[in-house]
Amino acid sequence: MSKEETLLAVRVPSSTSNLGAGFDFVGLALDIWLQAEIVEGDGPTRYHGALASFDPKDDYTLEAVRGSIPQGQHLEVSSNIPVSRGLGSSAAAIVAGLSLAQLIARGEVDRAQVFESATEREGHPDNAGPAVYGDLFLHAGFSKRLGFHEELGVALAVPEQILSTKEARGILPNQFPREEAISQASSSAALLLGLTRGDGDLIRHGMIDSIAVPTRKSMILGYDDAVKAGVEVGAYGVTISGAGSTLVAISDKRSAVQVAEAMADALTDQGNTATALCPEVVKNGLEVVSAKG
């Protein structure tokens, strides 16, 4: 990423959260990465990849590490995580900055402390958890890394359209009928069992969301068509990744590419140009790439 010597470097995976009925407490780490480095030499922060035209005032990595960077060194950040698409780009950036600050201060990273601080800063443990720990992550008053079943695949349709998390949260209703609350609870139980057991029937039920999707789907042009297209070629379920605009489907691994392409094509046909991606699930989350210090 840089011609100057890299002194410290971390990389952090993206994440998809909610996954249907797991609203605000389930997340999954994906093999799309942000890498942040402390590099020799004075100068401003440099950005690459998806952040190439990024404004430093909006950079959560810089905000988290700014006061820790020694004189004569600077920050460089490269990311392949689409920004404002519901794929945990903010959580990854915060985790990267907090981790670099710890490496600068004491030469090692305390994952539990990074997770706690990232959650406090951003308010989304369902993204911070996968970013730090990897795999399928549950936060329900306590935190637990679960095992995403090896026979399952993840399919994404990533629109060019961006969505604001603040706006997506702002349209959610404040109260729900009792019947919807009961339905959501049963679906969330099915979701976790399905994702850990590789049970397509449980996943189908578990990806039915009564809280966010009914109101948010109107913000994503072509949503219903994309869901239908994904299910027709093998998806167990399709839903909105995080606050959107990305759609995420769970299928068996063999069908994932076809599912992603079908969803992306359906969105594109409706005027919402989208790209198909099929990332692997990251098992271990945050990685320290270099710690010369």
Topology, pairings included?
Elements lengths: L5 E13 L3 E19 L5 E4 L10 H6 L7 E7 L9 H18 L4 H12 L2 H9 L2 E4 L3 E4 L5 E8 L5 H6 L7 H20 L2 H7 L6 H4 L6 H10 L4 E4 L6 E6 L3 H14 L4 E4 L9 E5 L2
Parallel strand pairs: 3-4
Antiparallel strand pairs: 1-2, 1-11, 2-4, 2-5, 5-6, 7-9, 7-10, 8-9
Helix pairs in contact: 2-3, 2-4, 3-4, 6-7, 9-10
Describe the structure.
- With 293 residues, the chain is of the alpha+beta class.
- The protein folds into 2 domains: 6-146 and 281-291, Ribosomal Protein S5, domain 2 (2-Layer Sandwich); 152-277, GHMP kinase, C-terminal domain (Alpha-Beta Plaits).
- It has 10 helices and 11 strands.
- The protein has helices spanning 60-65, 89-106, 111-122, 125-133, 165-170, 178-197, 200-206, 213-216, 223-232, 256-269, and strands spanning 6-18, 22-40, 46-49, 73-79, 136-139, 143-146, 152-159, 237-240, 247-252, 274-277, 287-291.
- Strands 1, 2, 3, 4, 5, 6 and 11 form a 7-stranded mixed sheet that branches. A 4-stranded antiparallel sheet has the order 8-9-7-10, with helices on both faces.
- A hairpin with a 6-residue loop joins strand 8 and strand 9 (247-252).
- Helix 2 crosses helix 4 (125-133).
